[in-house]
Amino acid sequence: MSDFTDKLRPSQPDGPSTLAQEREQSNIPTEELGKHLLSSDGFLERQARILSILQQEPILSKSKQQNLSRPERFKLGLARAKLLRRLSDKHKWSHDDYKMAEYLVDDVSPYFLHMEMFITTIREQASEEQRAYWLPLIESWKIIGAYAQTELGHGSNVRGLELEARWDSHTKEFVLHSPTLTASKWWNGSLGRVANHAIVVAQLLLPEPGSDRFVSHGPHPFIVQVRDMKTHQPLEGIVVGDIGPKYGYITMDNAYMLFDHFRIPHSALLSRYSSVNPKTGVYTKPDRPALVYGSLTYVRANIVHHARLVLARAVTIAIRYTTVRRQFQDRDGDKRGPEVSVLDYPTVQIRILPLLATTFALHYTGLAMRTVYQNARDDIEKGDFNSLAYMHSMSSGLKSLCTMLAADGIETCRRAMGGHGYGGGSGLIQLNNDYLSKPTVEGDNWMITQQVAGYLIKKMSAAVEDRGKGGDEMDVRFRAFIREKRAGGLLRRYDVLNSDRDVVKSFELRATALAYDAYEQRVIKKKNWNSLLIQLHKLSRAQSQSIMVTTFFEALSTNKTLSAPTRTILWDLYRLFALNTMESEGYEFFRCNAVAQSDLDALPARIQDLMSRIRPHAVKLVDSWMIPDYLLDSALGRYDGRVYEDLFNRAHRLNPLNRITFNPNYWEDEIVKGSGVNGSDILSKL
Amino acid sequence: MPSTPEWVKALKPSGPQGSELLQQERAQSNVNVEKLSELLHTKESLQRQESLLALLQPEKVFDKSQNHTLGRVERLQRSLAKAKRLQQLSEQHKWSMEELHAANELIGEPTPYGLHASMFLVTLREQGTPEQHKLFLERAQKYEIIGCYAQTELGHGSNVRGLETTATWNSSDKTFTINSPTLTASKWWIGSLGRTANHAVVMAQLFIDGKNYGPHPFVVQVRDLETHQPLENVYVGDIGPKFGYNTMDNGFLLFNNVKVPHVNMLARFSSIDKDTNSYSRPALPSLVFGTLTWVRSNIVLQAGGVLARGVTIATRYCAVRRQFQDRDADAHAGENQVLNYKMVQVRLLPLLASMYALHFTGRGMMRLYEENQSRMKAANSPGQDSRGAGPEELRAGANLLADLHATSCGLKALASTTAGEGLEVCRRACGGHGYSSYSGIGPWYSDYLPTLTWEGDNYMLTQQVARYLLKSARAVLAGKPAGNDTSQILQTYLDRRDKGASFDVLGEDKDIVAAFAWRTAHLTFEALKHRDAEQRSWNSLLVDFWRLSTAHSQYLVVKNFYDAVSSPELSTALDPETKALMHQLFRLYALHTLEREAAEFFSSGAVTVRQITLTRTTAVMNLLDEIRPHAVRLVDSWAIPDWQLDSSLGRYDGKVYEDLFRRASQENPVNDLTFDPYPWNSALLKNEPKSKL
């Protein structure tokens, strides 16, 4: 396809020269910063190694996938998932290698639930005997599984699930039955078309001793075969299928599933923690019900840790593109030079640069979350359950805040790029579509903040009543707050404009004061829980923001290895993140005396000043996240800045629509010129 | 699709049923839905909607069930089929523009005729001479030629003066040469151009004798009328898949020195004399910018309806969806309707208020626009203000158009942002099911989003508002008489500044309006101080300007909403109870906004910290309680037909779960495929269904 457009070049200065100049003007050592962020667990080495393998596989090319129909796109997704699994055998990949490959290919894998929730649930909740039977089958992929908990009518409230598992004492079987339509399993990944087994969560119904009534013992997990191993058709008494198109997750077969008096053996109940005596039908309770939700905490901790990479992708694209994109001459300039890079406009900076700072805040928070999770797991294995409540609360609050920051951040970046952000070449469309599930999955972001607030109110009650001894950091902080309050109020003033440590304290004070307010409303004034939900949500956000600011501060304070330019810029990013957050929640800080009004009034100017200090390093800072072009899949965010060439190539050469000539006359029903095919022919193909 | 077993067909959702819950909702409120609908839309347009619906819904070509499963190529083919059928119906039933527009709204997707029917025809009509009307417009109206409007380029959007496409006048043969000197000069995003149009109005830099006269419109044929192939030296195609709007063929377009005759430059406002080669300037530039103002006012008016779709769906669904027992209720109570949770209310009900606010504001602007147009047509004589300037350079003060123009810029930005972001809030408020395409919100949101950047990027536009407010402030300081509302609020602020505001925002509705005006005026004079006294650079003040524009636009919405709910028109149309509810919606919109922007309100002295605390803890909470029982009827009043909503969650009858299940199990082609799930079998399918793929 040679034509006059081959000779056309973008107007000057073009993308490559602009980015070269951006990289020239900053002294940030990207390699050092990249290693600091990503090399502790071999991430960067792994990324390079896996990438070179993936790029040799034609079906892993992303160039045309956006044009496909849902069935075709799903088929491609499954074909890729199969290939990755085979590559994993061929190259003897570790689990981390495999996860890296999935991350780079960037399709939600239809095997995801098999490899995560299915196997994890067996590991954590099956008895030793059950594990010995099932784990080899799963690990050798002889069976493929999914995890079915959520129902059409029931999500966050697990206790409200309707699917029944009724004990039949004659046959020693459980009978799975969906009494209503809302009892249908719904949203369960990997189950719609792919899995042949599933963990099914159902209400355990056992006969009440000495009567013919059944009593529910709450939701329990069962392992169930759902499809024939040969024909892959659903077994008799089961209706299962894919729930249809979604905002994103196009390559995932989220499922519906209904049971009609479907019998499963006694051994199907996963019985590490609770069990039913097959002879008597008597139930044995778990010692610790909270443990059952341990894997949910794990999933949330992972979501928190992953958020940094998601947001870093969006910010990488936005920063590179807004430096290459030029628009208008400077009003106060001489109007002779080239148009101004869009990133030089403060209205663009205020949207993107705080998000750049947020990627780093998310990074340190993610690390801290992982450490807390690891320690808590270790404690639990040793039989110590004290850290469980804290970990649960922290993971809930951070999951809510971090996924909101990342999801909204992607969209903010996309819009900051103007028209081209809307195009398929932005690289943010599938990311946006897929990631927008995160604020509502694994605990709705608004619902789970109640768990944080509930925990903080309990802690505050203990502090007020002076129960227990010293306790953890939070107890100490709460007690100090109460003491000062009783001594007649807080007179100290934090110098948030000049002291990085005072910023931390200011965030802590605001979270503590909000915790006290919530305690007062709920415990003293006995206010109705529902009437407090908005306030409780704000409390959770304040607490989680405080954790983010604190971990960011501590990570920088304790670092001794980074070079001076890197540390300087990281401190500026810390300040931008913290002060920008403070500014947007200004009223809450002001009301509890965590910041003076004069300081609050000075924040916008300080933020703008920080942005102008960070601006020259913006491109190098995103380069440090080392996100490969293959993953970005973005004309706008390419490392080399050849934005317009790539956009044109995608439109002109890679776009299948341009191979069809239409008949535009409305009085002729023909759609494709010369084909005679009309609207009803197109419909009949469906 | 496998047939549904009998035992599945027999299943019902667990009780209480969605239909019962919505009945309860409707029973507990006295809002007169019919009267309120008529006030919002007029009886005439409601009837029109009904008869169009009856006509369109049975036509198979307009079936919506596969909209979200098709590939891009098939979608566009179907979209063109829909557009053709609509045009045929339009001809058959002799539809007016309003009727065609209403039919398009019901279809709910952009079609490839979209830009022909709007911008192409409008531009030919408004910028063409009578001779050009005969040559182009008449044929275009009959669809003998199909066109589009090609302004934006690959490298240039908001800055129209930066366009790179050139049109060079050749005095020797009296033609123009249209050329694309660079790749970034490629036209881009041009709706209806990618595969459909055979003509385009092309905006190009006019060069005469080496001198640049700025961007001008040219009619250029781009495809052969017979073969529909691009003409020689024209490069044109579709730009590829997008976030939304995938039923539209947005196009690119490059020219390799293509010649067009003299008559192809649209010459009502500027022209070249064929004989002398001399250029004559636009006579009435303000009329051209009037069109843009009209377009933006329309966006404001539509924003209310756009948001109403999301709010209707989310409100009905949250009344049907139940989750958890109330923590403080007795243990035997059923699960609580999600809409009873305060944190759902605080997200949805202010949006419910916003959709009314935007609707009334759009109405108010349209009225102002029409009054102003007729006044201008009467008063304008050629020669006046003939500098050829853009509207931002027009003199402020008594000029109503300048006020209207600035107003429309700021409100367009605020209204489309409110609607766009509001839709995403609605989607998330629907929890997990909001993520399904069957929610009807996601696809609608994706199609709406470009409105935030087109017809002036929302952030860029705010500069024009700020520029206008600064000029007005300078005029007021110079003692010029206050000729319009903007000058008046600035003057009031100056007069009262030393006395202090002391507005009773919790007691008096009109004091709320005054507090919003005060904050705008305060921010205006602050910005003026930075720019004039401190001589700060324009660029460094952009964030301040953006805040200022937002504040000013919020004031305008609050004011328009207040005017509407206090109008005699509303009092006659509604019973006292519904009218009182309208006042509560006004207060909720205003106080919720005030609370969110608390810092600006107290630092400007418009309200006290105590007032903000009371707003937050008491006033807004009480309003949520008061409005909650009427929520379903308030969305019913918007009268959006189920077919238009295309949502399982937002159905009028509340049969949410039945419909989700029906669509998943019966309208979902993925379920026709039986896969081989094992990684080491490279075959994907166990069965290859006959035709479907």
From TrEMBL, chain A:
Domain of life: Eukaryota
Statement: the UniProt record of this protein carries the keyword Lipid metabolism: yes
Domain Acyl-CoA oxidase C-alpha1: 293-457
Ranges for region Disordered: 1-32
GO cellular component, one term: peroxisome
Pfam annotation, one family: ACOX
Catalytic activity: a 2,3-saturated acyl-CoA + O2 = a (2E)-enoyl-CoA + H2O2
Domain Acyl-CoA oxidase C-terminal: 502-669
Presence of keyword Lipid metabolism: yes
Entry's Gene Ontology BP terms: fatty acid beta-oxidation using acyl-CoA oxidase; lipid homeostasis
UniProt xrefs under InterPro entries: ACOX_C_alpha1, Acyl-CoA_ox_N, Acyl-CoA_Oxase/DH_mid-dom_sf, Acyl-CoA_oxidase, Acyl-CoA_oxidase_C, AcylCo_DH-like_C, AcylCoA_DH/ox_N_sf, AcylCoA_DH/oxidase_NM_dom_sf
Active site per UniProt: E442 (proton acceptor)
Domain annotation Acyl-coenzyme A oxidase N-terminal: ranges: 30-144
Cited Gene3D superfamilies: Acyl-CoA dehydrogenase/oxidase, N-terminal domain (1.10.540.10), Butyryl-CoA Dehydrogenase, subunit A, domain 2 (2.40.110.10), Butyryl-CoA Dehydrogenase, subunit A, domain 3 (1.20.140.10)
Gene Ontology molecular function, alphabetical: acyl-CoA oxidase activity; FAD binding; fatty acid binding
Cofactor (UniProt): FAD
Pathway entry: Lipid metabolism; peroxisomal fatty acid beta-oxidation
Binding residue positions for FAD: T150, G189
Assigned keywords, A-Z: FAD, Fatty acid metabolism, Flavoprotein, Lipid metabolism, Oxidoreductase, Peroxisome
Family: Belongs to the acyl-CoA oxidase family.
PANTHER family reported for this sequence: ELECTRON TRANSPORT OXIDOREDUCTASE, PEROXISOMAL ACYL-COENZYME A OXIDASE 1
Protein's name in the database: Acyl-coenzyme A oxidase
UniProtKB/TrEMBL annotation, chain B:
Residue span(s) of domain Acyl-CoA oxidase/dehydrogenase middle: 148-258
Keyword Transcription regulation belongs to the record: no
Residues the record lists as binding FAD: T152, G191
Transmembrane segments: none
SUPFAM superfamilies in the cross-refs: Acyl-CoA dehydrogenase C-terminal domain-like, Acyl-CoA dehydrogenase NM domain-like
Cofactor: FAD
GO cellular component, one term: peroxisome
Organism this protein belongs to: Penicillium arizonense
Protein's name in the database: Acyl-coenzyme A oxidase
GO biological process, one term: lipid homeostasis
Reaction equation(s) it catalyzes: a 2,3-saturated acyl-CoA + O2 = a (2E)-enoyl-CoA + H2O2
Region span, Disordered: 1-26
Signal peptide span: none
